[in-house]
Design goal:
By secondary structure, the protein is of the alpha/beta class. It is 42% helix and 14% strand. Strands 5-4-3-10-11 form a five-stranded parallel beta sheet, with helices on both faces. Strands 6-7-8-9 form a four-stranded antiparallel beta sheet. α6 crosses α7. The longest helix has 19 residues. The chain is globular. The two termini are 44 Å apart. The relative contact order is 0.12. The model has no long low-confidence stretch (mean pLDDT 90). The structure holds adenosine monophosphate and zinc ion. The site of adenosine monophosphate has 15 residues, from α1 and β10.
Length: 487
Amino acid sequence: MADAPFTLFNSLTRQPEPFQPVHEGEARVYTCGPTVYNYPHIGNMRAYVFADVLGRTLSFKGYKLTHVINITDVGHLTDDADAGEDKMEQMAAAKAQSIWDIAKHYTEAYWADVKALNIRQPAHWSVATDYIEEMLAFAAGIADKHCYELDSGLYFDVSTVDDYGHLARAVTEEGEARIAAVEGKRNAADFAIWRKTPAGEKRQMEWDSPWGKGAPGWHLECSVMSGKLLGFPFDIHTGGIDHREIHHPNEIAQNQAFCCSDGLDVAANSGARIWMHNNFLVERSGKMSKSSGEFLRLQLLIDKGYHPLAYRMMCLQAHYRSELEFSWDGLGAALTRLKRMVMQAERLIDVDEAEAETASAHPKFAALVGKFDSAISDDLGTPIALTALEEVLAVKKVDAGIKRAIVAKMDAVLGLGLLALNRTDFRIRPKGVETSEAEIGKALERRKQARAAKDFAASDAIRDELSACGVDVMDGDPLGWEWKLTG
Ligand code: AMP
Ligand code: ZN
C-alpha cells in the first residue's frame, strides 16, 4: 500500500530528496521540544502535529521509527542573545515558585495538548536537566579547538567550522537583531556553550563545570540529547522555521566540531542528514504571543466549544511548509469538515475489519489508495491525502469491513482518530454553559411540538431561551446535529 517514491524537503539543500535511512529499515527522528516556562500556544503545537505526521508517515512507509522530543527546562534565554535571562528562571521568579514546579506544571500542560491532538508518544521525552553530565563531556570535547572563555561563559567560535550558517543561507535583519553583542565575542554569531553564574549571584539551576558554576546553553542541549539517543548521524531533525536561522545552525556547528569534520559534509557531519522545518501559524492580532493576556492555547479553543481535533484538521489542511493563518472561521470550517468525516466513519465503528492488503487491492479503492500514498509520500502532502480519505469515506455499495480497513490505514497517518470518535464527542461544553443535556432535550421536545402545532411564536421563544443559555439550535443543519453549545 505504500510503494510511491518517498521524498522529503531538506532545508539543508533546499530540495526535496528521496528518503534513504542511515540504518536499513529504520528512521531516527529528533524534534526540538518546548521550553516549559509557559503554556504552549497553538502555533507551537503545529510544530508537533507536523513532527507527528512525519513519524506516522515513516511508520506507514515501513520504517521502524525512533522518535525523540526533548523538554527544555534550562538554558533557553528570553531572546537569542546570550545576554538575555533564562526563561525558566524568569517565570519562576515572577510566580515565586521553584523552577522544578514550573517545569512540571507546564510539561504536564504540554502533554495534555499532545494527547488531545492525537500526537503519538515518542520513544523518548528527553529532559535537558537529565543530561548535564553528557553536556559537560560534549563541551569538554570541543572546548580546546572550537571555544574560548569569557567572564560570562564558554563561547563557541563559529569561524572554527566550515561554512557556518549554511542552513540559514542568509540571516535576516530580524535574525541579526536577535544575536546581541556580548562584550569580548570574537564573532557576532558566536554563542554560549556554558553560561557562568555571575560572581555573587546564585541561580536556582546551576552545576559545577571546568568553566565555573553555571548552566548549559540551549543549543548544546539539543546536540547532546540527539547525538546520545539517536547516534550521529541520524536521519531527520525537525523544528519550526525560526530554528533554521540560529538554533539549528548552532547545533550543526557543534555537531561538526564534535564529529571532528574538516568541512560541512552535509550527509555525515551536521548531525542529521535531513533538517525539516514547519512554517508558522500566524494570527494578525497578536493573540499568539504568550505575553498577551488571552493567548491562543488549545484550552481556549476547547473553552469556546471547539473539539481539539478541529485544530489538528486545520493543520492538516495546509502543507506544513506553508504559512497558515489562524481564524475562528477557519477553525469552524475545519470542525465542520471533521464532523462530516466522523459521521461517515461512525457506520464503520462496529464492523469487522478486512485484511489491509486485500482491501487495498479492491477495485473501488486501489486508485484512492495510490492517490493517498503518492500525496503523503510527496513531502507529506496532507491536503491531498485528506481528500483521498474523504473520497474513500464517500464510496457507496461496498463491503464495510473493506472500507474500514482502508480508513484505518489512512487515518493511522493523518491521526484524526476517526474510528474512535462519535458525534457526542463534539458536544463540548464551553466554559460558563450550565444547561444540562436533559434540559436541552426537554426544551427541544417542547419546541418540536410547538412547530408541529404551527405555533411558530412559541417555537421561536424556546429557541431564544436556549440561545440565552449558550445553546444554538441548528434548524436545517445539513449534518443533522440539531444543537450545539456556543458559550
Ligand atoms: P519554543 O517552546 O518556543 O521552543 O517553541 C516550540 C516549537 O514551536 C519550536 O519548534 C518553534 O519553532 C515552534 N513555533 C514557535 N512559534 C510557532 C508558530 N507560530 N507556528 C508554528 N511553529 C511555531
Ligand atoms: Zn533544539
